[in-house]
Amino acid sequence: MPSRILVISTNRERAPQPTVPLGAAWVAESLLQAGFQVRLLDLCFARDALLATQNAIAAFAPDGIAISVRNLDNCNFLAPKSYLPEVRLLVDFIKSRSDARILVGGSGVSIMPQQVLDFLELDHAVVGEGEHAAPLFFRAEGAEHAGRVAGVVRRSKAGVVEAGGGAASAGPFITPRLHRWVETRRYLALEPVLPIQGKRGCTHRCLYCTYRSIEGDSWRVREPGAVVDEILSAMRNTRAREFEFVDSIFNEPEGYLEILLDEILRRGIKARFSVSSLSPKGLTRDQLELMARAGVASAVITPESAAGATLAALGKGFDEGEVHRAAELVSSSRLRALWCFLMGGPSEDETTLGKTVVFLNRYLSDKDHAFLTTGIRIYPGTGLHDVALRDGLVETGDDLLMPAFYFSPQLTPQQARTLLDRGISSPSRCINLLDTQAPVIGALRRIGTAVGLPTPYWRYTRFAKGMSRTR
Ligand code: B12
Ligand code: SF4
């Protein structure tokens, strides 16, 4: 049975920003609490990933290796890139240097475990959260028992079969203690914000979404006191004074936002917050006022379209009236909003896209911006996969491991581009995925952080776009 576990975070992507390996840290913490000796190797900033891995294996001599794969690809229809070939190189290298028992997990793996195991030629993966499955996997006597742990899937000659235990158990939350595992200083030098997760799961079923495979299909909220303790501990142990809630939807389930922010106020925390996904659905003025009082300065808002037909086709569960109602409230609040739209979903045509343009022209004020994504990544098992099969965009045999995208047959990406270019009155407030990949962004982040520019950094889009053009 292994006793020394090396957790490796494989993510090296730095656009739109390097992301702190919160999931890997959480798994490392759970292994430590279960009695293992644990090290976390974060490859994000490693100059040579293979050399860093070789050194870690030589120094620590692990007999168990937990590999975290956050992203499969960059979800960019206009410039797709899969990260899996570089993960495969790393896995091959690990196998050539160590006989340790290997477990792979992370959001990318949870979306397509079978395909990822096949591609990486690994035997065991965890689907969903790893805190409970990973310690049980490494504690099991022999690979046969390890493969039967709840939440673990294994690769067999006949394809992947679910392990006997079924879905990963969702036991009580532990606290990840990021600062114990990650060199937070490196990340904070590029944006002074640390991620925090207050809840997992989502009960909705949007057509394209993968979150139910990663986080589960019911809400699981953390005790607000524990979330606040985590923030305070991070403030004591790092220089972070800003935190981003990375929850699937910040304003659901009903009532949680209020008890969490009330707790933040009650404990007198002097920090700023941002939110990576706020739904327009049911958003109230009271909530926006409470958010402002508690220090929530900005939010990514995720309507995905401002046209009723597209919203219905995407299964968003709210209509265009709700999107406009939320926008009126946000416009008159202090919250800085980044409005997110997916262009080219099912039923998207010139009329529906035109409605999104009208929305942008009406609501993008001085404080607010928009993030426009062209095309939607197709994942197996989603409703979008069925629609893409019906529309002939993918074939039944496609395993979808390499990026595949849906774009409405009623429009071409070029037509969509022209419509946006002609229609949007403040293009400098609109960001697309290609903008986030501009090489100048990394340098700007570093300078911005050094001089203490207020976050969120997307508010400087106009400036960054100007810089990219002059280079
Ligand atoms: C918030 C978020 C962002 C924020 C991050 C902000 C921040 N400060 O960190 C922003 C907007 C910046 C972002 C950017 C991107 N993101 Co993002 N993001 C998310 C989101 C919503 C949450 C991620 C998170 O922090 N979760 C909390 C942690 C604790 O969970 P976790 O990492 O999944 O870890 C758990 C399990 O996976 C598991 N686990 C993890 N590692 C391991 C290892 C082992 C061995 C085991 C057993 C288990 C295990 O246990 C952990 C604890 O339970 C996810 C969707 C989701 N619901 O997961 C997408 C998601 C991860 N992002 C995704 C993508 C594609 C991207 C981008 C590439 C998009 C782009 N082109 O810009 C970039 C990449 C950025 C980068 N440098 O990597 C995809 C990845 C899938 C894919 N197609 O590859 C996801 C899954 C969304 C989706 N489309 O489905 N993202
Ligand atoms: S509300 Fe968000 S997290 Fe939930 S299913 Fe829809 S897109 Fe996914």
From TrEMBL:
Residues 3-148 form the B12-binding domain. Its cofactor is [4Fe-4S] cluster. GO terms for molecular function: 4 iron, 4 sulfur cluster binding; catalytic activity; cobalamin binding; metal ion binding. PANTHER family: ANAEROBIC MAGNESIUM-PROTOPORPHYRIN IX MONOMETHYL ESTER CYCLASE-RELATED (PTHR43409), SLR0320 PROTEIN (PTHR43409:SF16). Keywords: Iron, Iron-sulfur, Metal-binding, S-adenosyl-L-methionine. InterPro entries: BchE-like, Cobalamin-bd, Elp3/MiaA/NifB-like_rSAM, Methyltransferase_Class_B, rSAM, rSAM_horseshoe, rSAM_sf. The keyword Iron-sulfur applies. This is Radical SAM protein. It comes from Geomonas terrae. One of its GO terms (cellular component) is cytosol.
